[in-house]
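One chain given next:
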Amino acid sequence: MISKIERGESSPTAVVLGKLSAALELSVSELLAPAGQATAGGDTDAGPRARSGGLVRRAAGTPEWRDPDTGYLRRQVSTPRFPAAVTEVTLPPGARVPYPAGAYAFIAQLVLVLSGQLTLTDGPDRHLLAAGDTFELGEPRPREFRNDSAGDCRYLVIVTRTATP
């Protein structure tokens, strides 16, 4: 499967990405980062642009990935030079994305709901989160992100790497 994905012959689902991230000890953001992604400012409107030590990346230059099974959309907000991976997720109505416990064994993660409702299953616990609610993930457990509402759910995922178990 990895070989097919690398050759562009297959588009992985969010479930496959979760399993790969656990096996390879990489976050989903690290798996989806384009090869050779710039960490310094570029000079085009579409790509990163450094000004006075800062970095501007236009919306058109922000990498996106869509799960072919669920329509789940990931937009990578931060660049590799930032110390945390910040991802905006749009979860369509009826979508569910499960991740194995191993996907969380080497990261700390915070979820901030921007709009809509998110049902987050954390091991045996179930949490209904609304706009403005946050959830700081604890010990590694199987988790599921689900949208049981009639509209899109948008949320941010902020991830930092921790020591490998």
Notes: The two ends are 26 Å apart (CA to CA). The chain has one domain: 2-161.
